[in-house]
Design goal:
α3 runs antiparallel to α9 and α10 crosses α11. It is globular, with a radius of gyration of 20 Å. The strands form two sheets. A two-stranded antiparallel sheet has the order 1-2. A two-stranded antiparallel sheet has the order 3-4. Helices cover 70% and strands 3% of the residues. The chain is mostly helical. It has one domain.
Length: 329
């Protein structure tokens, strides 16, 4: 099992600092679109860090992680939509008004996704192996078709929003400011997950991946540990979904699609499982490849596939493993 201690302790910090330099570099190159491109990667990184927590360290192969991305996105989108309309989200049994405050929207999105993860995880974690994979996929598809049925909120066509969330003292409408806020949230979530992995809780979760029966014999309530881990990952994906909706000013069922879950898994595997920072590199690499190849041909996916296969074959432990191997060569 890979351990975060095998990677240079300064690598995540250096990575975050380099990401913080993107806006000034984009301005120097006169390429403002780079801020939006890397902002998307940073937002996806929040979701895949949590996915690596349950996949790389907990051994829980979820093929429905996009469900939490979508739940967070729709919670934020619906609240913001009603704030624009100045209407109530609920009128009974209590009145719940919409809001465009990020201090409400983002925690609400994370909390909504955490509740969804609690319910889904409570059922899925009673199984294992391929059954766990298929049940997480089934739940994600259920939520996908539920979103499609939301005709009040655009149904299959999705829901357009007219402005980003508001945050006291900051103009989130400015792309650079919004990027800085997203990068800060990614760094905070990354730090939280590193602390979790290095804690007693994290070692129990790792032990469950290696031999859950032995951990139960030692007296650990493995089901509860794995469920809490699953909820933490779901909350991160929910926050990521809310930020994605703010970035695009749009939310649609595409956030919950099974293809999105597959894309998140590719980011984790490409960057390196059991590294936490590896998935950040994976998100950046995948989106950059899509952007570069898409500029040359509309059939870019046919080229992307072989490139990803080659990268996985060359770097068995992902980009993080490749970097570590070159550093120690």
């Amino acid at each position: 099992m890979a351990d975060t201690s095998t990677h240079h302790r300064w690598t995540p910090l250096i990575g975050v600092v380099l990401l913080a330099l993107i806006p000034p570099v984009a301005g120097w190159l006169d390429q403002p679109y780079l801020v939006s491109l890397f902002n998307r990667a940073v937002i996806f990184a929040i979701a895949v860090i949590g996915l690596d927590l349950i996949l790389g360290f907990g051994g829980m192969v979820s093929f429905g992680h996009a469900a939490f991305l979508g739940v967070g996105g729709y919670v934020a989108g619906i609240l913001a939509h009603h704030a624009f309309e100045e209407s109530a989200v609920l009128a009974w049994p209590f009145t719940l008004m919409g809001t465009d405050s990020a201090l409400v929207l983002w925690p609400a999105a994370a909390a909504g996704a955490a509740v969804a993860a609690l319910v889904i995880g409570a059922i899925c974690l009673r199984t294992g192996g391929v059954y766990f994979i298929m049940i997480t996929l089934a739940f994600a598809q259920m939520l996908f078709f539920l979103a499609v049925s939301f005709q009040r909120y655009g149904g299959e066509d999705g829901l357009s929003l007219f402005q980003r969330s508001t945050l006291p003292g900051l103009d989130l409408g400015d792309d650079t400011t919004f990027y800085d806020v997203c990068l800060f949230l990614m760094a905070a979530y990354l730090f939280l997950c590193f602390r979790i992995v290095g804690s007693r809780f994290g070692w129990v979760v790792r032990g469950c991946r290696q031999n859950e029966d032995r951990m139960r014999a030692l007296g650990f309530a493995t089901y509860r540990y794995k469920l809490v881990c699953f909820v933490i990952a779901g909350a991160g994906a929910g926050l990521s979904g809310a930020l994605m909706v703010d970035l695009d000013s749009f939310v649609s069922p595409a956030l919950l699609a099974w293809t999105r879950s597959g894309e998140l898994l590719i980011m984790v595997i490409l960057g390196g499982m059991s590294t936490l920072f590896g998935p950040v590199l994976g998100a950046i690499a995948l989106l950059l490849l899509e952007e570069v190849l898409g500029a040359y041909t509309e059939h870019w996916m046919a080229i992307l596939g072989p490139i990803l296969i080659l990268l996985v074959l060359v770097a068995r432990r992902g980009l993080c493993g490749l970097i570590a191997r070159r550093r120690h060569a």
